[in-house]
User: Fold these one by one.
Assistant:
Number 1:
Amino acid sequence: MAATVERMGRSSRAPRRRSIKDVADLAGVSVGTVSNVLNKPALVAEETRIKVEAAIASLGFVRNGSARQLRAGTSQTVGAIVLDISNPFFTDVARGVEDRLAEDDHILILASSDDRLDKQHRYLRLLEEQGVQGVLVSPASNDLTWLDQTRARGTAVVLLDRPSPSPQICSVAVDDVKGGDLAATHLLELGHQRIGFVNGSTKIRQCADRRKGVRKALRAAGLRIADSLVETTVSALNADGGEEGLERLLRVSEPVTAIICANDLTALGVLRGLRRRRISVPEQMAVVGYDDVEFAGVLTTPLTSIRQPRYQIGRAAATLLLNEAGSRTHRHEQVLFQPELIVRESSGPPAR
Ligand code: RIB
């Protein structure tokens, strides 16, 4: 529904930001004295300090933190580039990052690459220009050539939700091969022999590893991939992508009786499509998601999903970044969390 905006009077630009020179002129002191009041007040006579503080209050002066931090090389900002800011998985991760940064009086700048390498590179450059302490990146592709270049320019990088290709780079991830295996094994144990898989591009490591896990489980059950798995790659891992993938799976000549989705947003679209077609879940089609975000358990048909410790992923990544950016004796770490199968009503045995 379009929002209506009522304009009240002429729009006015925010007043010019006051400078440290404005404060010095009003207080009748030098810029250096104002700087001392701000940074080393003990060096300034009380009468002068009071005069300067009065000028600061009167002008509403706010010092330029980024300029100060750039000069001192001690930024208090950290950047995070996630794949999709509208995916609750990443907002839960970001919550963990933000809470951990706040404990060290740091602030988060959050951006979304939308699975696009060009956007990821653009945001990386913008964050470096801001002089951030470091960047957490959930890479938009397997091309990590940017990684060494960014670190060589002095910006710490921790890979977020992706295992590191090298022991010299910190990372926090979940074993997504295991996650895909858990999802497929659960359905096989229910008796499903022909499973659909709505996945994203395998240029995204999470999707590639989940796919590996699904195929590993089918082979371990002695099934031929060609007979037991119908894969479809959708353009976006969201509800529309999920419905797009469902339509393709429903068109195959030999129907599937269960669908694994690369994440819960995709599963939402699959469930929506099945409801539109009056295909009952799980009786006529079992559905398994991935992430176990907040809504998974409260859907009309609660979603079976693969849980990722989202908040802990964020905290762990932020801790590694603060340690790397703040210490010369930092030891790189590659943290790998384990996924967990959460069984709910959306998965059950195939109809006989
Ligand atoms: O971005 C795609 C998926 O990768 C997310 O839903 C989450 O599962 C992440 O690991």
Number 2:
Amino acid sequence: MTRRPRLATVWLDGCSGCHMSFLDLDERLLALLERVDLVYGPLVDSKEFPEDVDVTLVEGAVSTRDDLERIHCIRARTRLLVALGDCAVTGNVPALRNRFPVPVVLARAYVENVARQPGTTFDAEVPPLLDQVRPVHQVVPVDVHVPGCPPCADTIAWVLDEVLAGRRPAVGTRTRFGA
Ligand code: SF4
């Protein structure tokens, strides 16, 4: 018996809007789950990214050391990597901080803009920020780029149909940056 394709979704530095758009597939999610095994993502209770994944949708940019380690692991374990949304494709909103050094960004967020308990001494479990936020393709090879902030559910459904059929979708005809 041939196995069903294994699908994962990943959330790096993004606002979750791309995953909300994925959830907007609504009843199409049920049809999708009859075609694939959803093996990792915010909807799945799995702590470790699994081996042998056929398609991974990546929301968000690469902003922390944790993101960096995760995306290398994800790439190594995924056949077809999809950068989903403008943050994954270009860096978008998270990359706005690239004009400033990390200590300036932290001071702005956790000292200047807070009224109570200002400070930038973090718990050791908080992943350190990278000096620069990077789109996914600047860190690992990406197979399909899907612009949009977020891409709409119809676009996500079409992209999944295409890649599950073994095709590389010509996404430029369907969506655009910021759409
Ligand atoms: Fe949020 Fe837009 Fe980034 Fe998606 S592309 S994570 S919707 S800011």
Number 3:
Amino acid sequence: MKILVTGGTGYIGSHTVVELQQEGYEVIILDNLSNSVIEVTDNIEKISGIKPEFHKIDLCDEAVVNEFFKDRNDITAVIHFAAFKAVGESVNDPLLYYRNNVTGMINLLNALEANAINKFVYSSSCTVYGEADSLPVTENSPVKKAESPYGFTKQIGEQILTDLSKISGMKTIVLRYFNPTGAHDSSLIGELPIGIPNNLVPYITQTAIGQREILTVNGNDYDTPDGTNIRDYIHVVDLAKAHVIALKRMLDGKDENPLEIFNLGTGNGNSVLEVINAFEFVSGMKLNFRIGPRREGDVVSIYSDTKKANEILGWKAERDLNDMMLTSWNWQKRIGKK
Ligand code: WQD
């Protein structure tokens, strides 16, 4: 059973490739290496013992995408991760995000249709909820006006799949991630931000290792218990395992609708300061941080209602915040001040 994973050398993609291989699936990776490095395939092999087939392909290059699929009739399903995901960057360069995330996805879907590949797992995001009216958010919580072009590309992706599922045989499972963090227990794969990290946890570990001078907490005057933003941090391995379960649900024909949506979170909300405290606890270090101004586009608080994934997928996040911090820190120590 061959599974195509776009963005498979990326952070969540690489962890999912390992879980797929360990469940006996053969994996083909398409990635343009714009935000990852080819050595990730070597590290995947070190973990699973199997080197995934890899093709350096940019989904925006329609001719190359069609060429790839031309002779392939061995692909059973696709897990689509390949996208840019830096909220701030998307505000400064919207066309880059619309081209890469939307045009790339349309090229992929056109090629899948032409080759009768009709099982699709889509990497979406809690970003689609914006500032929710009530918490925790369920899959029926309203999708709000996107706070960034990035968030909008995820909403567009879900809408494309919704419309497609009504008129084609395409079966889709949309997975809305909360805040992925942590790294594989082997410390061979993990989050590898290129340049200054946008996300909190890599910035914490890069500060702790001395690659960054100081962490700036983006505001502590929010309406939350300690004034800092609340998020639902989920271990990347828990997230990866959910993808395998979702894929298996489709392969076994258990999916009840042409398009199903699941929140993937822990159901717990933690503040920025709680994340810092957890890091200091597991590392035994004092983190150098200061309180700075709010960051444009940040929602105050969001965390998930995970009942649907728990009950229908039979999946539940198992790893806690301390484990996320410990595996992130072990990963950072292994790669050093890259
Ligand atoms: C978390 C909190 C920041 C950096 C991310 C991705 C988005 C989506 C969901 C995939 C916020 C604060 C951060 C720093 C800080 N993932 N922070 N100092 O914004 O919730 O969204 O996860 O789809 O693509 O961007 O995550 O880690 O950027 O921020 O205080 O140096 O940490 O203000 O409150 P976010 P984040």
